[in-house]
């Protein structure tokens, strides 16, 4: 189960709005450390590139916060529809997380 909470949004001068995004990743009630959580904005015909991907890494409590990195580091994720991906990082795979 992935729980994601959205907090207050913020504006951008790049033509897209960002919202702060944080959440918790748990499996069978237990937090997972070292997972990569990414939100990849889905474009459309009128806007094929809606903005950059946002990424967060879970901590010991399974908590993460998203930030953009493709166009400079900024806190949040582009407002809109996404492909949500959760993957195991190399560090998590070797630590048994």
Describe what this molecule looks like in 3D:
The structure is a single chain. With 97 residues, this protein is mostly beta strands. The chain has one helix at 90-95; strands at 2-10, 18-27, 30-31, 35-41, 54-57, 63-65, 67-68, 74-75, 77-78, 82-88. A hairpin with a 5-residue loop joins strand 7 (67-68) and strand 8. The protein is elongated.
Write the layout of secondary structure elements.
Blueprint: E1 2-10, E2 18-27, E3 30-31, E4 35-41, E5 54-57, E6 63-65, E7 67-68, E8 74-75, E9 77-78, E10 82-88, H1 90-95
Mean pLDDT: 81
Share in β-strands: over 45%
What is the terminal separation in angstroms?
A: 16 Å
**Class by SSE composition:** mainly beta
- Major β-sheet profile: 5 strands, antiparallel
Summed up:
The chain is mostly beta strands. It has one helix at residues 90-95; strands at 2-10, 18-27, 30-31, 35-41, 54-57, 63-65, 67-68, 74-75, 77-78, 82-88. The strands form two sheets. Strands 1, 2, 3, 6 and 9 form a five-stranded antiparallel beta sheet that branches.
């Amino acid at each position: 189960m992935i729980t994601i909470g959205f907090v207050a949004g913020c504006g951008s001068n790049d033509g897209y709005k960002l919202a702060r995004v944080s959440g918790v990743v748990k499996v069978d009630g237990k937090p997972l450390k070292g997972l990569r959580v990414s939100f990849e904005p889905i474009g459309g015909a009128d806007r094929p590139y809606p903005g950059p991907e946002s990424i967060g890494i879970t901590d010991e409590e399974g908590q993460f916060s998203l930030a953009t990195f493709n166009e400079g580091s900024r806190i949040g994720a582009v407002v809109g529809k996404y492909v949500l991906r959760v993957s195991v990082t190399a560090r998590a795979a070797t630590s048994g997380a």
